[in-house]
Give the backbone structure.
Amino acid sequence: MRCNLFFDNRLTVAWVLASVLCLLTVGASPVAAQDLDGDGWSVADGDLHDVPGGLCTSPELVNPGAFDIPGNGIDDDCDGIIDNPVANDCSGAAQISGVDGPALAQAMDLCAVTTESPPLAERRWGLVSAELRRSETVATAPAQVQVAVSAGFGSGFAPQGQATLAVLSTGTARDADEPGYIPPAPGFSDATNSSLPPAAFVAAHGGRLISGYSGCALIPGTNPVYDGVLLRLRVRVPTNASALSYNFAFLTSQFPDMCTQFADHFLALLTTGAAGIPADGNISYDSLNHLVTIQSLFPEYCVPQSGFTCPYGSAALQGTGYDPAGDGATRWLATDAPVVPGEVITLSFFIFDVGDHGWDSTVLLDNLHWRFLPQAPLSGVGDGLPGAFRLFPAAPNPFNPVTTLSFTLPVAGPVRLTVFDLGGRLVATLVDGSLDAGTHSAVWDARDGDGRSQASGVYIARLEAGDRSLSTRLVLLE
């Protein structure tokens, strides 16, 4: 058992008192075994912050299962070291042979590893497993030429995180000058690689693969898909994380190719207990919020044709193996999706051909990271969020039955402030409308939208404004 005592210019009386309490509980096993902040770990389990003190205003976010957020001055993961360097540089070289699921996860900067059901003392966040397969129903690995760890793709797609990125393709996951490259048109074909599309996805769309335009016919979901590559990650979420984020870019030789039965898809299917995930499970969209299929995609790198404006020209396609004069691609896009702190999620990246084996598409994946439940007043630390956008700790907290949530907005605009239980169920909507820039507050009276009193326990308040979001925990006492 360690107690984290350190001294710097941020030391406060409250921090000293909290540290003294930590020392006292070491010799008092009944107290040490109590989980005072409700995060699942007691002092005896290695939780160095079981009560508020100093910079640690939310001790329930500090435990051995947390991510150590750089720069916030707190030993978030209770390993005795404050502000550990981020260990996300574990894939330093390109790789085009022997590529497996873990290698692709590392290329996306997911370096921490853990196990599915460890004892509490060993329960850390990280990658549980990474499986490379042809589809949900076919566990056989795709052809090795369909995957790669790359130091960059062509001239326009540099890594968004560390030194490498992951490449999945219905064709060959290669630049034009790499061994094994086959032009995407007419393309690569693996006659043994056919399966059915994801059952839950097509069920959510009435048994069909969804089309992006109202004038296009829907494709029966019972038809096979071809040359599929599916990377399935199981990941334990840090106990102080509220969302995952990653970058992706999609390149295709089927541009423009609307309203045909040939509709390559890229899906990112997330299984989580968090609220707000679409019914089909897909969380990645293009810059116009379209599904990433060839019948709906908005390509941003291309030569203008058939009504597409191609806002960024076609130079970024140079060297990718996709023809700058006739193919299309998105720029690097970002996906953010809510997760439940501490849960094990499944995230499946799946790219496949529909209707044929040729005319290929490729997806690039990189920079998988977390967004955090903030420790006030450092609400933007580690999250890349501007300091003027803040959600402050509820006051009082713990509370019964009323607490106040205050927040600041840098600009006027639409805002939502909601309360969820730990199962991801929406409990109450406190704010839903446009507000001016500045400081605002809202009161929660521990009731749901129908006026029913809620049970004691931990709840999550989430503030959303534009593409930003922040969360904080609320503890309702009996």
Observations:
- DSSP finds four helices and 20 strands in the chain.
- The longest strand covers residues 225-236.
